[in-house]
Amino acid sequence: MSTGVTEKTQKTIGGIRRTFAPWNDPQAVPLIRYKNVTKRFGEFVAVDNLSLDIYEREFFALLGPSGCGKTTLMRMLAGFEDPTEGQITLAGQDLVGTPPYKRQTNMMFQSYALFPHMTVWDNIAFGLKQDRMEKGAIDARVEEMLKLVKLEKFAKRKPHQLSGGQRQRVALARSLAKRPKVLLLDEPLGALDKKLREETQFELMDIQMELGMTFLIVTHDQEEAMTVADRIAVMNHGKLVQVDQPAVIYEHPNSRYVADFVGDVNILDATVETVEPGMVTLRPVAAPERRFRIAQDCAAKPGDTVAIALRPEKMRVELDPPADTNVNCVQGEIWDIGYLGDLSIYHVELPGGVRVKAAKPNLTRMVERPITWDDKVYVYFSPDAGVVLTS
Amino acid sequence: MRKGLSWFNVTSIALGFAFLYIPIVLLVIYSFNASRMVTVWAGFSTHWYWQLFQNQQLLDAAWVTLRVAFLTATVATVLGTLAAITLTRYGRFTGRTLFSGMVYAPLVMPEVITGLSLLLLFVAVDIDRGFWTITLAHITFTLCFVSVVVQSRLVTFDRSLEEAALDLGCTPFRTFFVITLPIILPAVISGWMLAFTLSLDDLVIASFTTGPGATTLPMRIYSQVRLGVTPEINAACTILIAIVTVVVIFVSIMTKRQEIERQKAERLAAAG
Domain ABC transporter spans what residues (chain A) (predicted)? Predict the structure, then answer.
């Protein structure tokens, strides 16, 4: 499946992506502003005094487990829910009280919500007809949308005559047809299988770039959020835990919650020994005779109990101890091995009974790997591989 | 599992069906009897059907019945659909339980009581009883049936379809007519037909609420039968049975088809 983007824009995507960072620009005016927004359903607080700015042309992801308030946050922007307290503005206009049919946002629903009694063409034209656009202009726009999602041949079909992937495209075309200021995507790829989902993620990015629109996506799939989004907001219990670019969220999580929710991670409890600028020395609870050095400025004081977050791919498992004495090293025993083809995941039991996961790329075609069950191994990582988490 | 049916199953089914349908079958057969005597078979004839169409009184009654049924079904469908939407859509408003109880009460209320209370009401407010009072009474007791049928469809209705329409700039009022109604239409039509047949064959409530000049077909038949059953009445009943049967079969086929299509769509969605 090709992307439907011209050669010219394809070349500029990299350039735009690399320099796009309006959130760092104090002059930039956000397109969407949530100001101290709270939403309660009876006793349940879905969104808790939350403030968030989203900028024009941004691909923004709301990420969190189900029930964290991400969908409610999006539905308040679409107008299906009104905030209990606070203000939501779109391009400077206060949205609270504006009904959904008067807002310049369009939504792509998780269930796609295609009108079953209308053809693909009529589904896409529906929003345009509500605006009393003239017939010629509607035809042209629908054609354009069908082309964008590669469904020209399916215009006369009804939704039940389409596959899941095709329906997803119709839903996308329908929500894009009115050229909304913001496109809201509610778990848009949840019903697709993995391969199709990955392809569609890249397509979404290309379409967003080509149309120059602002996209807000709600997802519980962290890989999806990392792939498509310029920035991710990780949510929990109606609050924002961390808002940043995908790489920052992954490499510098600000809490155990974010580290654990985004990607695979080992979390080791440790006590702070010394704190210097740019370096922390810790005593891990699992191996008290060892000292770990983490290259990081840290607000913790000696004696504090903290957590070290270590991504499995940043840890090495070897039969021999490391030559470099600067790296952090701990001895353990192989507890379990997961062979994934490209990687093997080694579960190593440390002397204290704590198990850590380390990923090792399978660089050669050996079927018999040198490290096997019950082997005594060294697990090590460099000081800049781990993150100290104080919360 | 055992294949086929045991003799016990077969007998009980045969007896059950015989119990239910032999009277009706006899009635239909005797409507084609050439003899004037209802119980003596004297060869096949459609004479009584011709006779029936000469009987002005019966024809008048049939015409009244059809008008009542048509008007009843239409009004009851509108009101019943509105009640169903209110009950499924507007959550737990104050008095919801009372409202729902009051909508569904006629479903279980003995007809005699419904008829009597309506009669008392019409007498109290001093309306001339006749065509309109029968129609009003029929609307009252068929509304709940429409409401049940439409509500069962609305429960499985995907709300996001309406939200999508609103989101695309359609007002709530228009959304109902271009999205909701077309999708629930089969259920609404089923409700209409149910109300139509219920009104068509009602005797008790119509007898209570009628006045001079408005006699429905069931009432006319009943009064004639008291003077003795004629083959003419058999013919009239056969036609009534035919109408009701056709409507019922049509409705059940439609509901069935809808169900099959829904399942097919779900399978496709699951596979897609």
Answer: 32-262
Q: Which of A127, A164, A165 sits opposite B169 (nearest CB)?
A: A127
Encoded tokens for B178: 């271009």
Q: Which domain holds residue B87?
A: 56-271
Instruction: Categorize the per-residue pLDDT at B265 as very low, low, confident or very high, splitting at 50, 70 and 90.
Output: low
> For B85-133, how does the pLDDT look when each residue is reduced to its tens digit (9 = 90+)?
988 888 778 888 888 888 888 888 898 999 999 999 999 998 888 899 9
Q: For A264-389, which CATH class? A: mainly beta
Report the gap between the CA of B257 and the closest CA in chain A (Å). Answer: 15
Tell me: pLDDT of B30 over 70. Answer: yes
List every span in chain A annotated with CATH 3.40.50.300: 7-104+180-256
pTM of the entire structure?
Answer: 0.80
Q: What is the ipTM of this complex?
A: 0.83
Residue-wise pLDDT for B206-244, tens only, equals: 999 988 878 898 898 888 888 877 778 888 888 888 888
**Contact list, A165 vs chain B (CB under 8 Å):** 272
Across A245-361, the runs of DSSP E, i.e. the strands, are: 266-276, 279-284, 292-294, 305-310, 316-318, 328-339, 343-349, 355-361
Please indicate whether, in this complex, the C-beta atoms of B168 and A174 are within 8 angstroms of each other. Answer: yes
The answer to whether A182 touches A105, Cβ cutoff 8 Å, is yes
- Cβ of A115 and B269 within 8 Å? no
Hey, are the CB atoms on A115 and B161 less than 8 Å from each other?
yes
Rounded-to-integer distance, Cα B251 and Cα B262, Å: 16
Cα nearest neighbour of A172 on chain B:
B164
User: Mean pLDDT across the stretch A318-336?
Assistant: 88
Top CATH class, A7-104+180-256: alpha beta
* Chain B partners within 8 Å of A130 (Cβ): 168-170, 174
State the total domains in chain B: 1
Q: CA of B193 to nearest chain A CA: how many angstroms apart?
A: 22
**B31 occurs within a structural domain:** no
**What distance in Å separates the CA atoms of residue A295 and residue A382, rounded to the nearest whole number?**
9
